[in-house]
Amino acid sequence: MNKLNVFxxxxxxxxxxxxxxxxxxxxxxxxxxxxxxxxxxxxxxFNDLLERARQQLDSFDGSIDAIISxxxxxxxxxxxxxxxxxxxxxxxxxxxxxxxxKYWARLEQAKTAPQSVxxxxxxxxxxxxxxxxxxxxYPFWLxxxxxxxxxxxxxxxxxxxxxxxxxxxxxxxxxIGASFDQVLxxxxxxxxxxxxxxxxxxxxxxxxxIQSAPEGYVLNGEVHxxxxxxxxxxxxxxxxxxxxxxxxxxxxVQQRMIEKAEKILHQVGFDNGCFNVEYLWDEDTDKLxxxxxxxxxxxxxxxxxxxxxxxxxxxxxxxxxxxxxxEFPHDKGRFNIAAKxxxxxxxxxxxxxVPTAAELAALERTIPGAHVELEVEEGMLLSELQHQDAYxxxxxxxxxxxxxxxxxxxxxxxxxxxxxxxxxxxxxxxx
Length: 431
Description:
The protein is an alpha+beta fold.
């Protein structure tokens, strides 16, 4: 029997291990399409990456049966174009951009779920009068039209902070903005979006509540959800401490999230692809706010599904890419609850020591199911890390399971104690 060739954008060793957990993995041959360095670290322009990927696929001596991705932009937009070119099921590029272009996304969401969209406005950070033109009351969020991992996302409380954030945005927005403009040039933008591109920002009113996200897929026009996650914030309320599965929110709230997601996805015309929709639920008012729509499965969810359900969500991505209905188990895993914890460091510093391979192996032997991915190396200055948010640096990611929420949190405390990082303090990036 000939194996099906599945190309995975920027395939890492960790992802390859997870892919081997899918049903009938022996039927697939997994290939990395471009390297993780090319699609994540190099910051190459979109058109250049598209051409490199085309050349790799054209030179492949065999069938191209599926192309999938776990990364955010630019791979989220590369994959549907490549799928379409090879006659594979794919969402339209326009439907993706109606989710990924933050301002265009808000316009579309307001058409079908206006009560769940905060006040928002487009901002040109290069306009010297930007601070005078803002109509939103302080505080508000300032974000690029296209970014990821909260990069260049600022909580603005007054004009001085706004102008300081605009200055930093002007310096760095082109890292992603120029590439995103190459994607926007491939579609006909509606009049209300024309001229608002990768070098623009969006301001949004502050939302409060418990953040949660249903993940699912659309196949032949039908929306399916296979899991909901809670995104738990840290003590400062501006960054995430961990991602937890399954959601602990009331079933009625989860159902409302799913129903709104279905309406939004139909509104933008998204089909034959995976998604997750992030919400905030205000427990006091029972208000449900849409944060954003992501047009892929989340690789942050993969190990958590494996721990709780016995199979990673790669099963979903592969099936949908093949145009097949996925079969996904529930509650067949080793744990009742699982989480991805971000191990954070606040303030800039020089890394003087990281856990050794032997120390990580000891940790994973001691804590059942634990897996830790280091994000820093000895000698590195934290401010040199790419795609960090404005309030903390991620120095490691810890994937853990537990039989209860308290058991999970206890395992994280044990994990933290077994991670011997050391730093030499440097001048903080933010006052």
